[in-house]
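Tokenised fold entry reproduced for absentees:

. . .
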Amino acid sequence: MIPIRPISHTDETVTLRRADVERMLLAIEEAGDAAALRDAADRENGKGEGASADDLPVESVERLLAGEHPVRIWREHRRWTMQDLAERAGVALREVAAIEAHAEPGSLTACRRLATALAVTVDDLLPPEDPPEQG
């Protein structure tokens, strides 16, 4: 990298050549782009939330439609253990297990915490509604 040399400076100001300022701005932009690419790669690898980590594969949707609990589906999609989810959400492991097993619906507070940890909406964690009956 070419060093930036001030043209002049005082205690309050620094005067730079336009080319130096443009190089600095470009370096800042490139650093931001590199960070965004790293974040996207982390999400793709299941290390974070968002991007394609928010899209369930067909197999997971089929499991949802078959009645498996959405909390389990999203937790496994994130590649987390029940303990991981419980710790990230601040919800007791016993409660996470009971929710996933359909043994209890879980409190609204627990559902909100689970949704936040999983980076989904509370609605995403509700089991699918039964389709309306054909009459």
